[in-house]
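Model it.
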Amino acid sequence: MPTTPYKETFPEQVSAVRGNFAYMKAFFTRIAVALFIAAVVSPSYAADCDPDFDSDCEHNVSSQASRIASYPSYHGPKQVVAVLPFANRVKNVYGSWQLGEGLAEILVTELVKSGRFLVVERESIRGIISEQELGLSGLVRKETAVKTGQMSGAQFYIKGAITEFNDQAGGGGITLGFKGGEVGGKTRTAYVGIDVRIVDNTTGQIYASYNASAKARSTGASLSTNLTNFGDLYKLGASGFNSTALGVATRKAVQKIMGFILAESKNIPWQGSIIKAGSKVYLNRGDSAGVKNGDRLAVYSKGEALIDPETGFNLGSDERLICSVFIVQSRPKFSIARMTPDCQGQGIKRGDIVRYQ
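Modeled.
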């Protein structure tokens, strides 16, 4: 008996198989697309174990960012610090985002969150910014710029420069639009580099400097937005900028800067000044700066400022220990102290320095 071709023997079965195959192919295609879109909306991250950037080589970048954003509890005296807007050395990239001001805002938030610093409001340092810029340009004397800085009441200020802010795409993807911006689905690697300096507010000398470099890789979202303030962009939260590779790299860099500031600030003694002295002694540090009732502080007399004749910089001054006082009433912005017996006849005066013993 001659053999009948397969397609003629089982035409209905073959048609059903082909239909099922087409259905299954379409079904799995829809699943793949759904999984890809889910990855775009809820991206996952892989931290690169690059010793040039990270020493801990953690793989869950988003959980790492959440972990390092917390600080140990602190109830001691707070140093007064000012944060200047960062210089932007990558102006051709994300130029409309106001990176310098935005990163300064982010750092201010972290400094306050740490509980160890009293940050001077931006309105109080606008004069410092302009005078420091003029001082660097040589249009005013350096002594004048330093004196203007002292008006802020800060012990030191933090300035920096953004040296790298790059988000590189790799591979293909899709873009989903939303009000205020768009989320793209390409794999991306972000690099952030920031140079930071801690500067003495009296002498203008640099206490310490640091370069914070960080990177992160995202297999999910990138963000393109019409927001112009980088600080606002950063505050969009996990559903916005913070969920991108560039957002995670920025957070890591800021936290490295915070680690640097927390470590170096321990080498800078806390201090305040006497507003006036009589039967009571009034200090320019209060409860907001961590000064508490019963605290005991040493009083130092400042000698004449030693100005370098070649550079015009204030090199400091001779100090003499006078006596000690103890706090009897701490107000939000100032405190009242009593003199100890060793202060009698010592002539405590306005402008004398106080430090914890």
